[in-house]
Structures are given as structure tokens and as C-alpha cells.
Model the fold of this input.
Amino acid sequence: MAENTQAQAMQTAAAETAAKNQTRPPRGGRRDGGRPARAQATAPEEKQFDERVVHIDRVARVVKGGRRFRFRALVVVGDHKGKVGIGTAKGADVTAAVSKATEVAKKHFVNIQLYKGTVPHEAEAKVAGARILVMPAAAGTGLIAGGVVRTVLEVTGVSNALSKSLGSSNKTNIAYATIAALQSIEPSKNWVTTKLKAARKSTQTEKKPVVKKEAE
Done:
């Protein structure tokens, strides 16, 4: 009797285990018990503009309770095709300052005239105490520039150029002076030379109508 009771108990336990295995969901999160599908790796979107953080500075404002510290960021944004913008902004932390400065730079884009990876002619501009000189260079020369000027030229799309900083070392003023110098560049079709003036004068004289006097 004891053996029969023990056998029945084993059969009952086996039946309960089989029922649990049938009702238990398959491993891996799939109905067929296979491995779960891997999340599709999304390729990162290519940025349309090249964003460069040029300088980050901590500034303080004196208030009644003491000093209030914030951060100021200088950002240069360009598309390497002659479009560039500069922005500066303040924020409670570095991330906020950089994002604000980037938005400011994108709202103040300017178009620069380029010629075969360099500038068509030399240009100079002065902003406050900073004075920047930018000159064209032959292919293969590279960018002979440093600091802020180099960053601005790179994001603009200039690959060969010479430059010289002739004034203040303030990075914000240097950046704006570089943009001013690049904006002053004129394309070759707008250049005025002595030969061009002579050609224009000759064409103007040829186009003048000849008025014949009637015989009295």
C-alpha cells in the first residue's frame, strides 16, 4: 500500500510539473521560444553644419548676496562651403551656454566668396583692438594660422591661406574681425583694374549714338 501511495504521489507531481511548463511563457520574450529580436541600430544623422566651441569663460556678477557665476561660450558654425556664423552667449552651465551660442551663430550666417580652396585676394579688418590680415595661398600650403582664425577658416571651407593677427589677443574680437575680413572679399568679376576701366570706357564710347545735324 505504501508503495502504491508513493507511486501515485510521484505521478501527481510529474503531472503538476508538466502543466506548469506548458503555462510558463517561453524564454527570450518570443512566443516561439527563440532569442528576442535585436533593436535595429539607427545610424547617427550627419550634421549639416560643423560646430566648433572656440572658447569657454567663467564670468561673475556681483549681487547683494555675493557673486553669481555663469559661463560664456564662443561658438563658430560653418558648412565648409563658404557659409559661416559666430555666436556668443551665457548660461548657468557649460552645456546651456554652448547650445545658446550655437543657436545665435546659426541665426547670423554670412556667405563668403571662395576661390579654389582659398580666398580670391588679401583682406584686412579691425574690430575693437583686434586686427586680422588674411591672404591667399597656393594649393598645398595649408592653413598658416592659429587659434581662432584657423577655426573660422576651417569651418568656412578655406584649405589654403595665410593669416596674421596684428592687434589684440581677445578671442571674441579676433573671431569677429576674421569674419569681417572674409566678408570684405570681392569676387574676381567685381574687381576694378586699369585695363578693365579702359575696356569699359571704350565700350561706352562705342555705344554712344552719333547725332547728325540737319542742314539749314
Remarks:
- DSSP finds five helices and eight strands in the chain.
- Helices lie at 2-23, 94-107, 147-156, 171-183, 194-207.
